[in-house]
Design a protein that fits this description.
By secondary structure, the chain is of the alpha/beta class. Helices cover about 55% and strands about 15% of the residues. It has a seven-stranded mixed beta sheet with strand order 1-7-6-2-5-3-4, with helices on both faces.
């Protein structure tokens, strides 16, 4: 159960700042302990790397919360917090936060990103709908980082409400045009579609609305469960198509259709990526550190006038693109296994 807003603002947020101060004052001891553990634990300085990333994130959270509080006061204690001037300031914080995290993931975790295909800058001056696969830790972070820091976009996104346990995410993203929802199996579909429809209206030339049509991180168990759910609903053709997908789950078209309906002038960008999908738990991530890997991304840009107009045609079009994404992932993974 998520705590009320006042508890999150008056208890969780200050607790992060206090924790960051305590971490800073005990930094030499923490580093020495982590270094000592690294000599007995498997991996190359694994404990030290994890400790540094945790301290970095904690520090960024604390600094971000202080800056957000200053902006709240400067806006007239929230009076003008949603004005264009303050919205730009909040997007600047998003860019700063994600850029530093990305730099340190490259430096400390040995992660590199290789991008294929025409980037979203191909469609500068037009709003974008970003339809991305969802797999592994941090892929949403990577997609949003690419949009704000590489392509100068202002993303909008629907997120799970549990992310509001993170005070900086809670405060920052609630001040920007995003929506937090509470997924309820069998009942949250109409809510998500309504939220997507609301958020995808009135996109301007530098906006990007981000959707993960699979509805959650890919795992083999979830893939099979999604196929069984389609069969129970009597959607046999859709279930058979979903069975042919090896590396992605069948897309849920409701949110995509709502976005396409409410943002008719937006070009569509499909995003595939591969490199971290087998890391689905904290233990998986721990075993892989340092990662020493390349995360490969592929962007496909579809002009708005090439998107089908009929709902059934749009669903078929979406499944075809998801098959393309699945095939691309299969090819990239086969190449990686062959050492190329």
């Amino acid at each position: 159960m998520l705590p009320p807003v006042l508890v999150r603002r008056l208890v969780l947020a200050p607790a992060i700042v206090i924790l960051a101060v305590l971490a800073l004052t005990t930094l030499p001891v923490v580093v020495l302990v982590a270094a000592a553990l690294s000599t007995v634990l498997p991996g190359r300085w694994r404990a030290l790397r994890v400790t540094w990333m945790a301290l970095l994130y904690l520090g960024l959270e604390a600094v971000g919360l202080i800056v957000l509080f200053v902006l709240w006061v400067a806006s007239g204690f929230g009076w003008k917090i949603r004005s264009p001037r303050f919205q730009l300031a909040h997007y600047a914080i998003v860019r700063w936060f994600l850029q530093i995290l990305f730099w340190e993931c490259q430096r400390v975790l040995h992660v590199r990103v290789a991008v294929e295909g025409p980037p979203p800058t191909t469609y500068d001056g037009k709003p974008l709908l970003i339809l991305s696969r969802h797999a592994g830790p941090g892929d949403s972070f990577l997609v949003v980082h690419a949009l704000v820091n590489w392509y100068a976009r202002e993303p909008r996104i629907v997120l799970k409400d549990t992310l509001q346990w993170d005070p900086a995410i809670d405060v920052l993203l609630n001040r920007l045009p995003n929506r937090f929802i509470r997924p309820e199996p069998g009942r949250s579909g109409p809510l998500v579609e309504r939220q997507v429809g609301e958020l995808s209206r009135n996109l301007d030339e530098n906006d990007a609305f981000v959707i993960f049509p699979e509805g959650g991180n890919f795992t083999e168990h979830r893939r099979k469960r999604a196929i069984e759910r389609l069969r129970r609903k009597g959607l046999i053709d859709e279930a058979q198509r979903a069975e042919q997908l090896r590396h992605v789950m069948a897309p849920k078209p409701g949110g995509v259709l709502a976005a396409l309906t409410n943002a008719e002038n937006a070009d569509v960008v499909f995003v595939a990526h591969t490199g971290v999908e087998h890391m689905t738990t904290v233990l998986d991530v721990w075993r892989e550190l340092p990662m020493d890997r390349v995360i490969e991304m592929r962007w496909w840009c579809v002009p708005a006038d090439e998107v089908p107009e009929d709902s059934d045609a749009r669903i078929d079009w979406l499944f075809q693109w998801w098959t393309t994404i699945d095939d691309w992932i299969n090819e990239r993974q086969a190449t990686a296994r062959q050492g190329g």
